Amino acid sequence: MIQISERLAIGEEEIEESFLLAGGPGGQNVNKVASAVQLRFDAKGSPNLDEALLSRLFAIAGRRMTRAGLIVITARRFRTQQANRRDAFERLIDLLRRAERVPQARLATRPSAASRLRRRRAKAARAQTKRLRHPVAESEK
Length: 141
Known about the structure:
Layout: E1 2-3, E2 9-10, E3 15-20, E4 36-42, H1 51-61, E5 70-75, H2 81-100, H3 113-133
Antiparallel strand pairs: 1-2, 3-4, 4-5
Helix pairs in contact: 1-2
């Protein structure tokens, strides 16, 4: 089991990893060694994730999550397979931890009387500035 937080853990068997050739640094090894790592985690099929967490995860994951609820993370930042593997797992865990945090509900508030007055005065001053930009009418000359 991979411990995400005190309340959340996912099984290692839920994560499928594959290795692919990565571009970038690595010299001659770049064409021979599959150092990039691709993790696939079926979030929708996981028994440890509830509906609320899934919906937050879907919003946070963006392009990394398919419509079928599969999270795909590709790590190719480092030269070694082990470092890329560690990076991919850290990114998955970070994603799950961020989704686990329930956002604080926004409390609707009303603007104070002083702030409404400041806003009206600022609007009047701006309107006056714009009025002064217009050409002077013949009757006012």
